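Propose amino acids for all 155 sites.
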């Protein structure tokens, strides 16, 4: 688990339901004094971990993280969250060639699921080559399996 985010929560059961609707599964629940959860370890995909801990007085009011969401239907996730106590924004297209879905739980923690728009891959690549400089990998540097994952075509 090379990267994770820790979110404080005031309601573990509600948080587990909300994050479950976004595709997260519970890997572990660690009990604290009296048996109440002291930590809930959630995962959506490899290296997409959230640790939920009890909210304490003085905790920062908002935390935010963006997570890659390739190959999933963000509209399905938005629909799954309709009846939950969350603020949902999107899915919406961004100027940087992704479609994003953001949700904010009752404790103020925001997760943005971001997916590349494969239908605009060539436009994005052309824009990037014209406007972005520096040391980064282009489509030419990808192997055929990676290219297929990005644009949906056999290479």
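Proposal:
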């Amino acid at each position: 688990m090379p990267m994770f985010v820790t979110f404080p929560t005031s309601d573990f059961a509600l948080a587990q339901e909300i994050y479950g609707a976004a595709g997260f599964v519970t890997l572990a629940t660690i009990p604290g004094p009296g048996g109440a959860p002291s930590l809930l370890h959630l995962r959506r995909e490899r290296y997409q971990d959230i640790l939920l801990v009890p909210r304490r007085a003085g905790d920062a009011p908002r935390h935010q993280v963006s997570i890659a969401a390739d190959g999933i239907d963000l509209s399905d996730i938005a629909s799954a969250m309709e009846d939950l106590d969350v603020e949902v924004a999107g899915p919406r297209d961004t100027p940087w060639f992704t479609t994003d879905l953001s949700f904010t739980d009752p404790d103020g923690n925001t997760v943005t699921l971001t997916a590349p728009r494969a239908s605009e891959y060539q436009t994005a690549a052309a824009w990037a080559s014209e406007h972005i400089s520096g040391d980064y990998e282009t489509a030419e540097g990808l192997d055929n399996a990676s290219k297929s994952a990005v644009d949906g075509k056999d290479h």
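The two ends are 32 Å apart (CA to CA). Residues 121-131 form the longest helix (11 residues).
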